[in-house]
Design a protein that fits this description.
Layout lengths: L1 H14 L9 H14 L2 H12 L2 H27 L7 H9 L1 H37 L7 H16 L3 H25 L18 H18 L6 H12 L3 H30 L2 H10 L3 H8 L3 H36 L6 H22 L3 H27 L10 H22 L1
Main location: membrane
Catalytic activity: L-serine(in) + H(+)(in) = L-serine(out) + H(+)(out)
InterPro entries: Amino_acid_transport_2, Hydroxy_aa_transpt
Length: 426
């Protein structure tokens, strides 16, 4: 198997460009696609959860944001690149760890991503219902009907194909970046220093560590774009061959720098505008920070713009995560022994996604609760721990051993998973 993989790799590298080309439009498209996948419901709920923790935990989380997300996603990208040409993440797992381990990781990969679709389904339904009720003063249709129409509309976009999804997300990113920046700047005159009131209180080390411990899971989720990493790595290997790791790292670093700067500026602007009591109210209402701000301000521009921005953000993240969730579900179906045709498999997956997302969106569970107990910890297992384990065990990844970033990524992954154990125990 290894000899076959090596021969494939050699043939592929022989056809690869001798050196990296200059930065091109496709690289920019992927950079914005990664940004677009990450910025969604998690980001729009991050100010609520992070702000409730107080000033100093928020500052520490802001400093950790870039290294925590960049090193983890780089590790997962390297893992996919270590496999055969054209192999997605589930196939690479099977190649390195065997069929049984491949089936287990495929299952975990699916459960790391699919709950995010459920979270976005709930967030999208709540955003549109709140907009109809508070801004348009229209009684929303029954929740079951509204959620069905919204999810069906997104799945119609999915039918256009993977490249169409990436392009659609990259196009939506431009106005979203401008709008998010506009909102953050607009809030500056409304800063009342709400969270600064907690700056004078330096928490005890045990209290600080506990707050960070429980907040990291939401942070992991908020900057996560692991569902699209597999497709990203496969495309980079096809384009750049043996130079794929170098170019993918460049794209990842720029994407993460953009998202961390934008998101943390937005987070600080929100928490400096709203009091801790108002943040707690937003959490209780199960609304994103944008929907809460729209209801909070009397300014008609903000009242209409904020929910629309939230709609775009959640929609494009839903599309990006659907790529990974469908990839995982298809892998599970194939590994179960059933091998329907490609078109039939696509229809089966789409139908299952529609029904389950619709049911959960209708039931309206707590979004932050789902992030803390399901999304963040399971993502951490796939995004943080699996690539680090592969670096230690897989010969193809041996050259990445001994790096300090490996220890950091492993520690963050263990913290996120232990937070889940704590929440289930209390």
């Amino acid at each position: 198997m290894n000899d076959q993989a090596n021969s494939v790799e050699e043939r592929f590298d022989a056809a690869a460009p001798a050196e990296l080309s200059s930065w091109n439009r496709q690289d920019t498209t992927w950079m914005l696609g990664l940004f677009g996948t990450a910025i969604g419901a998690g980001t729009l709920f991050l100010p609520i959860n992070a702000g409730l923790g107080g000033f100093w935990p928020l500052v520490i989380l802001a400093l950790l944001a870039f290294p925590m997300t960049f090193y983890a996603h780089r590790g997962l990208t390297r893992f996919v690149l270590s496999g055969r040409e054209g192999a997605d993440i589930t196939e690479v797992v099977e190649q390195h760890f065997g069929i049984k381990a491949g089936a287990l990781i495929t299952l975990l990969y699916f459960f790391a991503i699919f709950p995010i679709l459920l979270i976005y389904s709930v967030g999208l339904t709540n955003t549109v219902a709140s907009f109809l009720e508070h801004q348009l003063h229209i009684t929303p249709p029954p929740r079951a009907l509204l959620s069905f129409v919204l999810i069906l509309g997104l799945l119609a976009v999915v039918r256009c194909g993977e490249q169409a999804i990436v392009k659609a997300m990259s196009l939506m990113v431009y106005p979203f970046i401008v709008a998010l920046l506009f909102l953050a700047v607009y809030l500056i005159p409304h800063w009342n220093g709400g969270i600064l009131a907690t700056a004078s209180h330096v928490p005890a080390p045990s209290e600080l560590l506990r707050t960070l411990w429980l907040a990291i899971t939401v942070m992991v989720f908020s900057f996560n774009h692991s569902p699209i990493i597999s497709a990203f790595a496969v495309d980079q290997k096809r384009r750049y061959g043996k130079h794929a790791e170098e170019r993918s790292s460049q794209i990842l670093s720029r994407a993460h720098a953009l998202m961390v700067l934008m998101v943390m500026f937005f987070v600080f602007s929100c928490v400096l505008t709203l009091s801790p009591e108002q943040l707690a109210e937003a959490k209780a209402q199960n609304l994103s920070i944008l929907s809460y701000l729209a209801n909070h301000f009397s300014n008609p521009t903000i009242a209409f713009a904020a929910p629309l921005i939230a709609f775009v953000a959640i929609s494009k993240s839903f599309l990006g995560h659907y790529i990974g969730a469908s990839e995982g579900l298809k892998g599970l179906i194939v590994k179960s022994g059933k091998r329907p045709g490609a078109k039939a498999l696509d229809r089966i997956v789409a139908a299952l996604m529609l029904v389950i997302c619709w049911i959960v969106a209708t039931l309206n569970p707590s979004i932050l609760g789902m992030i803390e107990t399901i999304g963040g910890p399971v993502i951490a297992a796939i995004l943080f721990l699996m690539p680090m384990y592969a670096i230690r065990k897989v010969p193809a990844m041996a050259r990445y051993r001994g790096q300090a970033s490996n220890v950091f990524v492993t520690a963050v992954g263990l913290v996120a998973i232990s937070a889940l154990v704590y929440k289930l125990a209390v």
